[in-house]
Amino acid sequence: MDAATLAFDRHRPRLQGIAYRMLGSVAEAEEVVQDAWLRWHETATEALDSTEAWLVTVVTRLSIDRLRAAKVQREHYSGHWMPEPMLTESPATPEEVLARADDVSVAFLTVLERLAPEARAAFLLREVFDTDYDEIARMLGKSEAACRQLVHRAKTQVQEGRPRYRVSRETQMRLLRSFAEASAKGSVRELEAFFTEEAELVGDGGGKVQTFTHGLVGARRIAQLYFAVQRRHAGGEPERSVRTELVDINGEPGLLRFIGGVLESAQTFEFDGDRIARVRAQRNPDKLARIAAAFAR
Asked: In this structure, are 147 and 8 located in the same domain?
């Protein structure tokens, strides 16, 4: 590799991380990073004061432009839009558990959708990537005071949308293992006990598969849905059977559900103590393609 390629690749993980958190789409984030790569090769890089600052600025601005267009498209999205999930490795330490759950979880990315593009960029650069305000101001073409105000307001919005309770990873793993077993063998009553009374299930089918447009609310209704899926495929041909896998999705324990060997959904969870308060089921085949490919190898 030449020096310019090596320099770009050294910063690629950070650039990909910024773009993914801005857009909630792995594919779109990769396209943004590729656009930055092309611009990088058209630039007199030896004249730059800071390679990282230049690249982060380009990726941030490209992401803002793309997010503006995406927000218009998402207003007309069929059903409930949710981020594209990605498989992640299990964190090695409690500190990594906390950091990853805070900055890349599906719940967190969903809350970020409330923010305007520039506010989202300022918030992420400051709160996730620890960028100084003077650098953020240069990247966004705003004053430091304006950037501080953007971050302050964004923090308030994000805090309002975050889960009320933080549940340990061990508790999440234990609950999801038990829930997966109950989903395979249990009764409606057993499944119902896993949910809070006002639990909610929301799904993203992208207009390609059936899901609940406005969500499903109530422990019993959600339990009945899980029970019905299992019962519909129980005792049938192997190619119609239901299987679940406990994996790490966006830094937190989640479930993949396969029907007839085909990935049907990637499910992430919010907890209220030792019960499930919200399920987010990503069912859009386009957004499941990368995870499905990983399990097909």
From this structure: yes
